[in-house]
């Protein structure tokens, strides 16, 4: 027979365990709900930005992440891509990257979205990203890049690498270097942006309005210097 003091301690411990379990369950459910809501908002933003075409001239397709979408801006139409020359079509999705695991919102990697994005029949494809691949294995980045190049074979392509966003600054050099190696391997020009000193929002990851303009102007200038005269080819 249990002593009353021991019984009280056991009962008290059980209550604590049950409360902790309930808290954990609530936390997990809340996080799942927040994640679903965030992904849904990303889809809404992606559709809104895709519906906006800026400029005129040669048709340019931008496949990118939240920077291309304009996340954090009051007007998504003013994302950096609007600074590019030509008739610019943006197909971006916040949180996406070269690797399949960069986003938790399903199949939204650059490769997963490229085939549909090419429906605009671009003369030039600009792929912008890398910040969301910061924690992905090199092999995952390699595979995603290879699949993307297969999608874009026969098109003129430029790859624009990640800027040195303070929140992920520690990971930028690895991703930047890898994307440059892969771009050379698949015969497409690579534009580094990690040297740019840009203005960021308080989250230290996304650009302010001025930051978008500065980034867009720099990318437009650098693309003009390296823009490919020939379509990309798939190299196995």
From TrEMBL:
User: What InterPro entries does the record tag this protein with?
Assistant: SGNH_hydro, SGNH_hydro_sf
**CDD domains xref list:** SGNH_hydrolase
Put simply, this protein is called: SGNH hydrolase-type esterase domain-containing protein
**Pfam families in the cross-refs:** Lipase_GDSL_2
Q: Give residue ranges for domain SGNH hydrolase-type esterase.
A: 62-213
């Amino acid at each position: 027979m249990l002593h009353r003091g021991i019984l009280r301690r056991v009962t008290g411990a059980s209550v604590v365990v049950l409360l902790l379990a309930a808290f954990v369950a609530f936390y997990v459910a809340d996080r799942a709900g927040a994640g679903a809501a965030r992904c849904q908002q990303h889809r809404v933003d992606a559709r809104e930005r895709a519906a906006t075409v800026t400029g005129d001239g040669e048709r340019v397709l931008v496949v990118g992440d939240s920077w291309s979408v304009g996340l954090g801006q009051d007007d998504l139409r003013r994302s950096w891509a609007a600074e590019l020359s030509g008739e610019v079509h943006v197909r971006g999705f916040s949180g996406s990257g070269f690797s399949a695991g960069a986003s938790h919102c399903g199949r939204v990697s650059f490769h997963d979205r490229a085939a549909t994005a090419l429906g605009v029949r671009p003369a030039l494809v600009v792929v912008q990203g890398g910040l969301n691949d910061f924690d992905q294995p090199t092999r995952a980045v390699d595979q995603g890049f290879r699949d993307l190049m297969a999608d874009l074979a026969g098109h003129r392509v430029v790859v624009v690498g990640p800027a040195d966003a303070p929140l992920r600054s520690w990971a930028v050099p690895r991703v930047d270097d890898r994307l440059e190696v892969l771009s050379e391997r698949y015969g497409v020009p690579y534009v580094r942006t990690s040297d740019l000193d840009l203005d960021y929002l308080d989250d230290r990851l996304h650009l302010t309005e001025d930051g978008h303009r500065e980034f867009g102007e720099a990318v437009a200038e650098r693309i003009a210097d390296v823009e490919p005269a020939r379509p990309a080819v798939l190299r196995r």
